[in-house]
Fold this sequence. Notes:
Blueprint: H1 2-21, H2 39-61, H3 68-98, H4 104-127
Helix pairs in contact: 1-2, 1-4, 2-3, 3-4
Amino acid sequence: xxxxxxxILSVAxxxxxxxxxxxxxxxxxxxxVESGSERNAVRYWSQVSMGLGFIMLVTLLLRHKMNARVNDxxxxxxxxxxxxxxxxxxxxxxxxxxxxxxxxxGGFAVHGLLIALLVRIITFGRxxxxxxx
Length: 133
């Protein structure tokens, strides 16, 4: 079950990265006159998100050919990085919601879902200590 959650998270990370890279579905209008200044940061974030999702998918696909411990370390490191990179955008969307932008709700929900999946993977692992990834 945990493998499927990691697959879902990886694919979601890639899809969200593609949406950000293509500037599809997200509005930064709450930034006012600063709108547009976020493009480079958003482009970089989207590349990192897609890269981490891809690395985790490939790591899962190569699991049977790799040492299980090394594979687990790569996956845990990828999950930690994925969690860390969710903090800036979810904070930005939270700020947008605080200033009253309804457009920020979608961005907050997307990153909230990714964080919820990450937390579920971690708690799933804790409840099943004996089972590997």
